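agent: user wants the structure for GTPase HflX from Kocuria turfanensis. delegating to structure tool.
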Amino acid sequence: MTQSHHTPADHSTASPAVEADNGLSRQDLEDVVERVLSRARAREADAGERADRRSEDSGAAGSGLLTGRARELADSGQEHSQHDGEQQDLDERRALRRVGGLSTELEDVTELEYRQLRLERVVLAGLWTEGTLEEAENSLRELAALAETAGSEVLDGIVQRRLKPDPATFLGSGKAKELRDIVAATGADTVIVDSELAPSQRRGLEDVVKVKVIDRTGLILDIFAQHAKSKEGKAQVELAQLEYLLPRLRGWGESLSRQAGGRAAAGEGIGSRGPGETKIELDRRRIRTRMAKLRREIAAMKPARETKRLNRRRNSVPSVAIAGYTNAGKSSLLNRLTDAGVLVENALFATLDPTVRRAQTPDGIGYTLSDTVGFVRSLPTQLVEAFRSTLEEVADADLILHVVDASHPDPEGQIRAVRQVFTDIDAQNIPEIIVLNKVDAADPFVVERIRQRERNVVVVSARTGEGLDALRERISESIPRPETVLDLLVPYQRGDVVSRLHDWDAEILRTEHLPEGTHLLVKVREDLAAELAEFAPEHAPGFGAESA
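agent: tool returned. relaying tokens verbatim.
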């Protein structure tokens, strides 16, 4: 994007007084203006050449893994369907996006009024310690998708084959210097490492590459901080960020980080002796105090969610949780099944706050559908702990719809990562349906391979609607259903009982209108059967006994 430059006003009308005060003639002023404009044009041309070189270098430097857009964010045609609603939240989020190609460096004072916010330019780095090279490259591509979601421009990425991370710089001194050269060649200002770094490793790598270094955990926490909307979600994200920050605090120089006292104070002596407290300890104490307050706030929000959950249990309403890898299409599937209209975006961790909607099976049995936060490989433990109250929707469900992106290069890896999180939250024993989504863009061989490996699989496309009827039938077969059969004769003046039987926790098998009232053969839950005992006659009419 070419920047516009302010052209100074014509100086041909400058007064002699101005010329005398400046000590410059009109010709001198014109020469100065021409030199300024020439430098500006030269900088524009040089910036264009640097951008071209960066695009060429990004394919040549490092491993050349990240040509084009991250695979996890590849365009798949139409992003939304009519079932997704107006998507006003998405319009609000995109209105705040930063713009690529705008400079923030102040090279000359004449550029002061043209400075604008731009995307960070990042280089990715990862280790290949186990598995295949393809798995390591897929992990780095996923990191590229996370970086783009966070609002950065990915320039290049490297993968190093190493048995274990270097304790000093994570990559080792030689690869760290190579990374420094790539950063200098591409003009990057940030390095993102595809793992969680120890504080000492982060400092050591920053000392070598001379730019900011963040790890995978810090990147995911940044995305969560951007996308959290509800009060509970914001509190959970802040708690996770503080837990991550606490062991990584760094001092800001001797004047703020060291105690003063006696001769060690370099002459400050009198008046500075005493117990004291370092600045970093003050910061740690403030963080611990804030974390304690956040935990109290989150605990205070929990009863409201528990009350809603207990009401559903009391009414024996089956609960179905939609879970799966991030950007697998969980929110799109929820919109298709319930017309919920929740936010849908081609980005990782687009929705964080859980959404619960009412749904019905084709034969009228009601249940709830819960959309949960997406999972990812190596999901930070801070997030699992902070979002435990949200993830309880999965642990307390009667059935899990495990949504898998069938078009992803490694869907089996996604399934393993999600099931690891299920184990962490004690949800591994809940009945599970593997929902292979995005089948319209998937390789049929991959779909058939997963169907052979997994027992309970349904193939769908939330974008086109393919396979949704089969999914509804499978949900109807899998959720807890009423099992107690009753033969009832309900007087006509008790229409409220008949209306209650048409609700979502009862199944009417047959209906007959007799002079004495409405004759019904129904299936109900055990707790409701006791309430209806007074309408079960000792000698029921014939059709009920024959059907039973």
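agent: one observation worth passing along. The chain is about 45% helix and 15% strand.
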